[in-house]
């Protein structure tokens, strides 16, 4: 069996997430498989590199680690991504930087609780160059950019995929000169797309992306909405970096529990973490006021004959009313699930401290 090629990208700010993503992915991988681990380095400190290298050394010869230096300045005219950097575009570089036929790409804000070798061994259908899960929040191309959908002569309702977990045929992407086309696309359309590299992947590869089952990329908010702590998925923290900005709920508890287990405990006393926790607390306090305010706005627009605006505000008002009404039940369920998560054990090798 050929080694599973696994690629992630990070800078120092997101290294704690990458460490946990790698630890979880390797822990749940078929023990008979070797792994070729590629980490795209967008500014990782020597200390963090040594930390990951020591972890890989404890696992043994089954995993080969390589740091690959990236220079995202090629995307200099593209829309700035999270952290006001171009690191979000790094997966576009994979066909250009790595001389391998195929690989699995993971965002560094995931936890893996299933065997990635099953995904790696998947044979893509004819005409497909990537396999991914449909995005849970952006349902079609027009919700990213109606302007670009029209300019590209693509159906506005065309399928839209999340790029946080992908099986990629790099040979075919190189054949199509995807890297070169993506650089031109992103720099030329700066400000017109919403989701950085994900926009380029969806617009340039429309019709060439194979649909994966949802278990390969489950957003953390859907895990929170579950009635239990069932895993067997790749859990993706799409709306927060749980080591930086907490979102109270089972998914946050799970990340902190796993991070502590692998020796990379979340620093809850950091200024950024504490500030985010205060903001979340304020959000909950303001929920009743928001529900009332959006309901009033809905009524105002209905009287003014703006049915589209009225419907939009009604939808948001319903969200906040439901949020307030379900708060006691949600709190009881979260407490029950939090207790179960505290008692979880994880299949993990090399659990020495990462500090």
Commentary on this structure:
This protein starts with a strand and ends in a 13-residue tail after the last helix. The chain is α/β, with parallel strands linked by helices. The chain has 14 helices and ten strands. Helix 2 links the parallel strand 2 and strand 3. It is globular and about 65 Å long. The longest helix has 33 residues, at 271-303. The relative contact order is 0.12.
Overview in brief:
The protein is an alpha/beta fold. The chain has helices spanning 15-27, 46-59, 94-97, 116-120, 141-144, 146-151, 170-175, 178-188, 197-204, 220-225, 250-261, 271-303, 307-325, 327-342, and strands spanning 4-10, 35-41, 63-69, 102-106, 110-112, 130-134, 161-169, 209-211, 218-219, 234-236.
The whole-angstrom Rg is 21 Å
Q: What distance separates the N and C termini?
A: 34 Å
Beta strand count: 10
CATH topology heading of the largest domain: Spore Coat Polysaccharide Biosynthesis Protein SpsA, Chain A
Task: Please summarize the sheet with the most strands.
Answer: 7 strands, mixed
Listing every helix as H and every strand as E from the N terminus to the C terminus, the arrangement reads EHEHEHEEHEHHEHHHEEHEHHHH
Low-confidence stretches: 350-355
Q: Identify the CATH architecture of the largest domain.
A: Alpha-Beta Complex
Strand content: 5-15%
Helix content: 40-55%
Order of strands across the biggest sheet? 3-2-1-4-7-6-8
Total helical elements? 14
Question: What value does the average pLDDT take?
Answer: 90
Number of structural units classed as domains:
2
In the CATH hierarchy, what is the class of the largest domain? Alpha Beta
Structural class: alpha/beta
What is the molecular shape?
A: globular
């Amino acid at each position: 069996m050929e080694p599973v090629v696994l690629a992630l990208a990070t800078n120092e700010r997101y290294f704690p997430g990458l460490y946990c993503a790698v630890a979880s992915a390797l822990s749940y991988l078929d023990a008979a498989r070797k792994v070729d681990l590629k980490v795209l380095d967008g500014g990782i400190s020597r200390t963090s590199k040594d930390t990951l290298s020591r972890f890989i050394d404890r696992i043994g010869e089954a995993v080969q680690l390589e740091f690959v230096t990236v220079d995202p300045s090629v995307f200099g005219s593209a829309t700035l991504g999270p952290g006001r950097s171009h690191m979000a575009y790094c997966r576009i570089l994979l066909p250009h930087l790595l001389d391998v036929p195929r690989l699995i790409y993971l965002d560094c804000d995931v936890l893996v609780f299933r065997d990635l070798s099953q995904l790696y061994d998947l044979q893509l259908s004819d005409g497909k160059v990537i396999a991914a899960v449909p995005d849970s929040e952006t349902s079609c191309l027009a919700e990213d950019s109606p302007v670009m959908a029209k300019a590209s002569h693509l159906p506005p309702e065309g399928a839209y995929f999340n790029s946080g977990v992908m099986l990629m045929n790099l040979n075919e992407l190189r054949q199509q000169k995807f890297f070169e086309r993506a650089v031109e696309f992103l720099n030329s359309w700066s400000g017109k797309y919403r989701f950085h590299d994900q926009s380029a992947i969806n617009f340039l590869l429309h019709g060439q992306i194979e649909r994966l089952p949802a278990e390969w990329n489950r957003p953390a908010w859907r895990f929170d909405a579950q009635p239990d702590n069932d895993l067997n998925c790749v859990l993706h923290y799409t709306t927060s970096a749980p080591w930086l900005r907490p979102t109270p709920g089972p998914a946050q508890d799970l990340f902190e529990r796993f991070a502590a287990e692998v020796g990379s405990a979340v620093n809850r006393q950091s200024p950024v973490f504490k500030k985010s926790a205060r903001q979340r607390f304020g959000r909950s306090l303001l929920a009743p006021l928001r529900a009332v305010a959006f309901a009033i706005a809905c009524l105002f627009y209905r009287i003014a004959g703006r049915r589209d605006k009225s419907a939009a505000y009604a939808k948001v008002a319903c969200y906040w009313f439901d949020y307030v009404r379900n708060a006691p039940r949600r709190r009881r369920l979260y407490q029950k699930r939090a207790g179960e998560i505290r008692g979880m054990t994880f299949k993990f090798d090399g659990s020495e401290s990462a500090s």
